[in-house]
Amino acid sequence: MPLYLSRFSYTPETWARLINHPEDRAKAAQSYIESVGGKLHGFWYAFGLRDGYNLWEAPDNVSMAAVALAISGGGALSSFETTVLLSIDETMDALRKAGQVQYRPPGA
């Protein structure tokens, strides 16, 4: 199954709610991905540009998109971005296929 890396930030209101009622949001994230047949591999909070990161496994892009849309539509986040991660083998396949693409730079 494909892996996905999500980066998110909470709204100030969400942080205020969590301060007043601390909650392990990894459990919630796990239930969301499991509802589409996936798995949560990790949930981390961080300092910096984003408040946290998730590593997910999902059956396909549509399943992951469904989870991302549900989370994004919930209103608790100010940002949510997801990146599809490629394995080394997938990257090697892509590199071999790239050699077959007849790319022409603009103006060439």
- Helix fraction? 25-40%
Count of separate DSSP helical elements: 4
**What's the oligomerization state?**
single chain
Gyration radius from CA atoms, angstroms: 18 Å
Side-by-side strand order of the widest sheet: 2-3-1-4
H-E order: EHHEEHEH
Give the CA-CA distance, first to last residue.
40 Å
Which key terms come to mind for this protein?
single chain; 108 residues; alpha+beta; 39% helix; elongated
Overview of this protein structure:
- By secondary structure, the protein is of the alpha+beta class.
- The protein is 39% helix and 28% strand.
- It is built from 4 helices and 4 strands, in the order E-H-H-E-E-H-E-H.
- Strands 2-3-1-4 form a 4-stranded antiparallel sheet.
- The protein is elongated and about 60 Å long.
- The N and C termini lie far apart (40 Å).
- The mean pLDDT is 96.
Task: Kindly summarize this structure in a few lines.
The protein is α+β, with helices and mostly antiparallel strands and 108 residues long.
Secondary structure layout:
Elements: E1 3-10, H1 12-20, H2 25-34, E2 39-45, E3 52-57, H3 61-72, E4 77-85, H4 88-98
